[in-house]
Structures are given as C-alpha cells and as structure tokens.
Amino acid sequence: MVAQCMEAICGVGIVKGIMNHPYNSLGGGANLVAAVYSHGAFVLVYTVFSATDHKRSACDSHVPVCTNGRGGVPPLRAEGGCREGFELLQEQPLRIDGGGFPAVTAPKMTEGLHTAEFMVSQCTSNSYERSIDMPMAENGGYPSGGGGGGGGDDSQPWLAPQLLAAGAQALPWDLYASQSNLFDRTMDDDILHDGSTRTFFHSGNPPPPQSESMVDDGIPEDAPAYHNFGEMAGHCRESLKMEGSARTESGSEGSDDDEEHRPARRSGKQHCSKNLFAERKRRKKLNDRLFALRALVPKITKMDRASILGDAIEYVMDLQKQVKDLQDELEETNQADGGGHDKQIGSSLHSSNSQMDVPIPNGWMDHDDSGNNPRTIAAADDNKPSSDKGQQMEPQVEVRQLEANEFFLKVLCEHKQGGFTRLMEAISSLGLEVTNASVTSYGSLVLNVLRVERRDDEVVEADRVRDSLLEVTRHPQGRSELARAVEHQQQLGFHHHLRCLHRQA
Amino acid sequence: MVAQCMEAICGVGIVKGIMNHPYNSLGGGANLVAAVYSHGAFVLVYTVFSATDHKRSACDSHVPVCTNGRGGVPPLRAEGGCREGFELLQEQPLRIDGGGFPAVTAPKMTEGLHTAEFMVSQCTSNSYERSIDMPMAENGGYPSGGGGGGGGDDSQPWLAPQLLAAGAQALPWDLYASQSNLFDRTMDDDILHDGSTRTFFHSGNPPPPQSESMVDDGIPEDAPAYHNFGEMAGHCRESLKMEGSARTESGSEGSDDDEEHRPARRSGKQHCSKNLFAERKRRKKLNDRLFALRALVPKITKMDRASILGDAIEYVMDLQKQVKDLQDELEETNQADGGGHDKQIGSSLHSSNSQMDVPIPNGWMDHDDSGNNPRTIAAADDNKPSSDKGQQMEPQVEVRQLEANEFFLKVLCEHKQGGFTRLMEAISSLGLEVTNASVTSYGSLVLNVLRVERRDDEVVEADRVRDSLLEVTRHPQGRSELARAVEHQQQLGFHHHLRCLHRQA
DNA sequence: ACAAACACGTGATGC
DNA sequence: TGCATCACGTGTTTG
Predict the structure, then answer these.
(1) Smallest Cβ distance to A139: which of B199, B221, B375?
(2) Which cell locations does it reside in (chains A, B) (predicted)?
(3) Which of A426, B186, B195, B382 is the most buried (most CB within 10 A)?
(4) Which is nearest to A52 in space by CA: A31, A72, A25, A78?
C-alpha cells in the first residue's frame, strides 16, 4: 500500500510519462524539478517539468502529463497553457486519513490515501487566461474547479473526472483533488455584457427595511412561510415535474394538489419540509446578521444587501486605518519616554491576543467542518477578461496550514526584479520563518514552494498570509475589491494591527 | 526500465521506508523534503528527512545516515550534524546513459550510469533502501515511449482524451486518458456553472479572494457561467436546458431558438433568462463582497456565511472599541504633553468617517451563533533545538558544472542571519542567475541546492564560484549594504515599510 | 440516515 | 416597460 501510495504520490507514473515524453526525447530539453515534502502522513509533491532549453521550440507545445494509472491523480491542467515553457506542476498532498493517527504504523494508510491536490499550471495559457478569472472568487479561492474549468462548482468537477478516468470506483484518491488551481472558468458570461449595468450605486434611498419580517421573531417557523407555500409549491412543482425523474413523478403532479399529502416520498416530502424550515431559519439568521452589521456601520449608502456589505467593507478599512494611525501616534508619544518600544511591541504580540488570533488548528488533517483547513489558494485576478495586464499572469498563492505554527506556501508568479526578496521580506514581516524553500523558474515564471514556521508566538492566519503574499507578488495595479481590501490591510500593517488589539486587551 | 529508474530516483524505496518509519508512525513527526532536478538525462535528488515535530522527543534521537549500497555516496553528513533533528540527506545525481540518443542535446549523457551519490539515512534502521539501485539508465530522454501517447498528446490532449475515456485505454498509465477526462468533465461542469463557492477542498478554507468587483468599482462582471445542463438538472432542468443551449450554443440557436422567437413568452422565457443572468450576477457580487469582508476580518471562526458576518460584526465592534480607547488614551497622554498630533488624528478620524461611536446594535443576537469560540492555539512551544550549538561547522560548498554556462551549487552551512541573501548576492555578483533553488533547513543547518546559469557571457569558473561562496558563507560579518538594509527592513517590518511608501505616494 | 450549508432558478416587487 | 433586488423552495453536496 504504502509503496503504491508513494508511487502515486511521487509521481512515478508521471515521471515515467515525462521520461517518455517528447520533451524528454528531445534530448535534454526536459527538465524536471520536483519538491517533495511530507508532513506526517501527508505528502506533498510539487513537480515542475519544463523544457529548459529555450531554443527548442518544438517542445513548446505542451503536454499533458499524466498521472499514473493508479487512479490517480488528476492531471492538473492539460490545456493549452503550457505553451512556452511548458510547465507542469503537480501537487499532491496526500492525506492519510483516518483521523488522528493512531499511529504507529502504517495501517492507516490504507484507508486514507486520498490524494489531495494536484495542480498544474501553465505559463501562458492562452486560451485559458481568461479563464482565469475569477474563479476564485467564488470559491473562495478555492479550488474549485480549477482545472477543469472551473468554475464552479463546487464539488464535483473533480471527483467525477477521476471516476471516469479511473474507471471507477472508489478512488482512493480523490479528495482533495480539486484544488487545482487556477482559474476556473471564465466563463462565459460575460455574456451578459453588462456594460450597461454600471449603475450601481445610485444613491437611492433606503428602502424600507423590512426587516420586520424576519428580524426578530424568534422562531423559525415563521409564519410567512405558509402563504407562499402554496404558491410556491406551484412553481416548484412544475419544475419538478419537468424533471421527470423519478422523484418528481411521484406525485403525478397533475392536479395541483400539493405534494403534501404524500408522505411516501420521504425524501420528497418530509425531507423537503424539514429542509424548508432549515433553510428559512438559515436565511433569517443571515438576514439578521446582515442587518446587525448594517447597524454598526455609520454610513450607509443604500439598503441593498450588496451595498450594505460594501459599506461595511469600507467602514472596516476605515476603522483599521484609524486604529493604526492612532496606534502610531500613541507610539510616537510614548516613544518619547524612552526605551525600546520594540520590546513593547514584542511583548504585546506575545501576549494573548484577543481576537486576532487565529485558531486554525490545523490543518488539513481533519476536516471537520471547522473548516479551516487547507487553506487558501488564490489567484488574483480580476475578472477583466481583457486584462490589461498584458501577458503577465496573475500570481498564484496558496497557503496551507500544516499545524498551528507551520504553513506551506506556494507562490507562482512572473519573475520580477527583487521579487524574491520582497517575498522573503513579506514572509518575515508576517512573523514567519522559512524552513524550507524550493524555487524554480522557467522563462519568466517563478514558482516558490516554501515551508514556513511561525517565529514567535505570533499568530498568523493563513488567509492573511496569502493575502499579503499575493499583494507582494502582484503588481499593485489592478485591484479588485478584495485586492483592495487586502492592500488596505497590508498598509495598515498586520503587526501593527495585532499590536493594537493586544494593547487593548 | 524507466519506471525502475524513476522509482529509484524518486526514492520510492526511501519514501517507503519513511512511510513505515517510526517517525511517521509517531504521527506527523516525520518530515520529508526532497528536491528533484533533472537536467537532460541527469537527475539529482536531494532529500531531507527530519522530524518536524519538536514536541515529539522520541524522534529526536537520531539517526544514522547511511548510504545505499551502490557504491555509495558518502552521506552528506552523517556526522554529528544530524543529531538533533535528525537530518537525512540524499543526493543522487543520476545519469543515465544508455547511449545516446538522438537527441538533440543530451550533453552529458554519454557516460554511463554513474550513480552518483546517494545518501540515505535512516532513522532507524532498516533498510530497505538499498533496493534502490539504480538502474536508471536509459532513457535519457528519449522519446518515444510515450510516443503514442506522449507526443500526441500535446496537441490533442483535448480531443483525444475523450475517446480514450470512452473506451479505451491503452496506456498503462493512461495518463492522458485520465487527464482528458478530467478535463472534459470539468469543462462540463465547471464551466457550466459558475462558481460556487464552496468547494474548496474539503476542508474548507478560506476562499480566495477573488476579486472582482469590489466595492466600488464598477461592476463586476461576472460571468456566470453556463449552467451545466447535465448535472444540474435539478429542478428546472428543462428550463436550463433551454437556456443552456441557447447560450452555449448560442450560435446555433437556430433551431431551438426558443426564447427569442417567442415573444409571447416573454415573461416566461425571455424575461426569465434575463432575470436568470441578472440574478447570477447579483449573487456573485454579493459573494464577492462577502469574501472581501471576510478578508478584512482577522479572526474567522468558520467559513460559513453567517459566521463570516458574525465575525465581521464582532470585529467591527472590536475595532470601534479600540478606536475609542485609543482615542481616549491619546488624549490623555496628549493632555499631559500637549502635543499637537493629536489633532491630526482627530481630524483624520472625523474626516474619514465620523462615527466612531457606534451604538451597539443589538440586533444580531441570534440564538445560535455558535461559532465563535476562540480556539486556543497550541503553538506555544517553541523550543528550537537549535541555536546554541556551540560549534559552527565549516561551510561545505560544492560546485558542479553541468554545461558551459550552467552550474549546480550545493552549499551547506550554519544558518546565519541574512545568510541566504548574502549567498544570493554573491551568486549574482558572479554573473550567475539562479534558475532553481532548494533551501532546506533543520536546526541550525541550512542546505542550499541551486542551479545557476551564467547571465551574460561572462566567464566564470567553477573554482572561483566555489571560493566566493565559501567566503561568503564563512564570514558572515562582511555583509553588503544591501544585505544589511534588507535585514533591517525585515526587522522593521515589511508592512510598515509599505505603509510608508504608500504614504509618500 | 440526518443536518447544515449553498447555489440555483423563479416569481414577486419597486423603481 | 425594463431593471434590479429580494425571498423562497428546492436539489445537492458535505460531514
């Protein structure tokens, strides 16, 4: 098992493929660079295969790399991307699950073995570039679809593929698969040409909050529901009907009768009703919070949900800036006193922090819903398809928390003068210390895979790390909302901020 | 052959050993770090296996390092070095000879199979390692094998795959096949729907920032994506289908054109589709903002939407309180002092938004807010084993010339502040450019493995390179200005710096 | 299975 | 009349 596992992990298959690959055959043009890291039972493999020889254009077309048969690992991206330098990245964190590991030995491996991620990136990508856009957004970055495409969705893109590929069955490896990177989709949609849309903010005015409805009443079963129920049923039904699948048909919806009377359909009915309530409750909670947030924000432009959030965002940035400024001021004044305030700072950092700290226990070993895990992948891109960036690709940053104080970082970006130094500085300023680094470049791209540890007891959150690195690697120019938020954050200075908080405590 | 070769190269055996190794069994204590480089037929593998978990003292004892049978290469350091943290280094430059291949370049392959070095250390004992022998030979890369697969792939990875998927699969590894599937699949899916956010890996994590629309900027464009017909099906399959088709195929609409020519249905269809996109867009915008908000909040308990909002609310309250406190504090101090800056602050504060004080909302008390329990971070223990090693080791520098303009460098030395930077500077000053770097540290030791290329036409000899590096690593004290500046910068805090810059601007 | 969380499409509503 | 926002119920995935 282990062996197989490792085989897969190590990409023997891949390598094999590579070895046989035309690139290789070209004689020396092929260049494999791989970094293998393990953390406990988890193994991460980053592989870059590139044609080192620039002269060899033939190679430039790219190749898909495959994974070995084992069911393996989905290739990251085969598409067009790899053109120039052809670069392929494979990352496969492997987790053996099982939970905590009991340890000793390998036994556990059996069950686990989920292959985690696999990523490939290509340099240029033509076709894809656009695809790049945003995927992240939604997904939070994640992983989503990455590879494939994208987008969306959440989940399946990855599994399915594998299934297909493998043929089947339970693949041992599937889990993480998705991460992949990049960019997903793009999609289409621009379709919407929204050009028109721009309107957004007209300052309208506040709609009446109707919160009432939900606002507070407590209990879930709010009345409202009912009334629509009837109607809704109607539409719902229809749709269902269409669906035709077994489910729907059940009722033979024919008349409008509601489905209600059909207990039989448990999933259909009962589940449905439960879900219905749950959903209502959830919605209510969400609304409540949204309004609560709105209540906190002084300046509200519109009552519209998006605006509420937007205002809140701005407000938070504002507050952060204020805090920082105040802090600075205070420090300055205090400085007069004498003495190393550095120390103060340090100490404050160490002290408990009230809020800031991040919990994240770590990682990817347990997926409990807490969710913290594998952290983030991000690519920054804006959606602008047009992308003014010219050819430069958006940096890809992935931060994964291995343990409370350890992170894995992956940064893929265009080579820029002083870029590495900036990266190191950023890492350092985040209170992180690099324990392992693998830097690989091909053409204008540079891939940095790092393992970092928290230096002091400072608390650093994966997201923050990611954001900072993203900012650093990216050109300040194109900013997105989030980018802006991030930038703001950075300007504020994370540490500073931390410090402030501490002080408060 | 190839496979075996790679197996050996990749250290499957070793890895396997590791997997079974006590360290591993200890649960997470084991840490493998490997860097694999290939240059033509030459493959170099550096592996470091160390116990990452400091807490686990059991591991600390260390291990002997051994070399494999093959004639072995002397272990990098078996000596004392590995003591504390147990360090294992494996280096295997592998050469495959086999003859040459046609290849184009293939520079060095000629000779045969010299296995170069191989070091293994194991913690414990056993050994498996040896099995590894290196058969590697061959291939240098050549072509063929993949032939069918490989080559072809390049181009068509996309098309073909499908075919493969469907039936066939010939290749043992089918890489391609799988790959293709992936893609296909993905495409379908992903593309189709836009994203959803959730996905990540399963564990959830922060979503990536995605950018896009930000607060103010204009509109996002979002791209919604196509829906996928296939799967989504859920309810409205039909409707989707239609839409999908329309959109997707847009061109073809001809036949079905449904909506268009159906004015009648306007509300039904056309309106519907428009609304549909609008809705998607809206959702996306909302999500984006939500994530942007989350990005600003340091402490996030869960990734769940409600939690994001909840955390944001708390954070805002926190910030408000901080601001207030700081203001008070500042005032106090200023009073004593009489300083002027306070004004600045005040003004700034007011200007930005006047409302610091916020009424606490009350609103959001939902019963269930669960979520926020701050978790404690384990972290604390930071006892680095290192540091006090009294005796510093002499740096080891190895320079190997791969080609006229390429070198492989290996530098093993004690970790020193700014050491890496100095090394980089030295390399740079020698007219060399780093194309690949792998830096690994454990305890106080740092191993740098670099591939460098001559930048200009400068001529550099290996000896000179070695000497320079030796010099640099040996005498820390002589630091360049830049190094010093950098270090200083780091100490200051990168962000701070950034901030300053921004300010200037 | 059971529950939580989402995204989705749809109908309704207000400009 | 469009257009944007919303609430809703559903299906689906995750754990």
Answers:
(1) B199
(2) Membrane; Nucleus
(3) B195
(4) A31
